[in-house]
Amino acid sequence: MNTKELYQEIILDHGKNPRNLGKTENYNKEAKGHNPLCGDKVHIFLELDENKKIKDISFEGSGCAISMASASILTDLIKGKEENEIKEIVRDFLEMIKTKENLENKSLTEDDITKLMCLSGVKQYPMRVKCATLAWHTLTSAIENKKEEINIEELD
Fold it and tell me: Does some domain include residue 154?
């Protein structure tokens, strides 16, 4: 199996069988995001502990396979990580999706890098970049405790 096929398989798997879908019970932070151009919606629920470590994370939403796969990969990847590490991962991911060839974060496992890199192909399709980044911007909004819904069209 070549890299392109592997990436497509990961996106399809996470898109059809999203991880952490639903509403985590003991969340203490949340945020909503929307992509009005294509209708993607995401609602992120976080349970941060007293050390700003993600104890639990989940999401609800609807949208295209890219949007749902990205939210699923995101929630799978950052569970158990601390806020500062998460901010670095988010920044690195957003830079990779828009301009960089690779991820630079050294704390990610090879498996994590593969999952994130499967979304790198959206660079070729500017409208799809917004689908892939919606959950990531919404996560940032939740961590920062912002109350207004993210409109992806107003970002970047």
Answer: no
